[in-house]
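Standup notes
- DV: blocked on the single-chain target, sequence here:
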Amino acid sequence: MSATMIFVNLPVKDLDASKAFWAKLGYSCNPQFTDDTAACLVISDTIYAMLLTEPRFKEFTHKAIADTSTTTEALLCLSAESREKVDELVDAALAAGAAEPRAAQDHGFMYGRAFEDLEGHTWEIMWMDPAAVQG
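- DV (later): unblocked, structure below
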């Protein structure tokens, strides 16, 4: 059985700025699924974010697009291989123009930080001690 893939669809106001932001964090877009209305952000072999211009996003829903300056549409969480990698990614996001919505959360066996990307989508980056998960 192959691994399940996830494609998170996110509306963006400025596709070029969003692509540039994620490139500064070391991510790329799959050109096969990228055009002037959408970009397929490759997060891993099984995780993708479809960055869709707002008009393109509206083709998939009859609901209003969330105003991320006043509402939270979702909390997107990615794992990191270490506490240091959490800090590296969030610090790179901040340097690329992201905002940090809250202080780091350190529970000893689990450490996490968050950033809001240029469009206001909240990304949680967390590390968990593998020994704590096992038992």
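- Follow-up: The radius of gyration is 16 Å.
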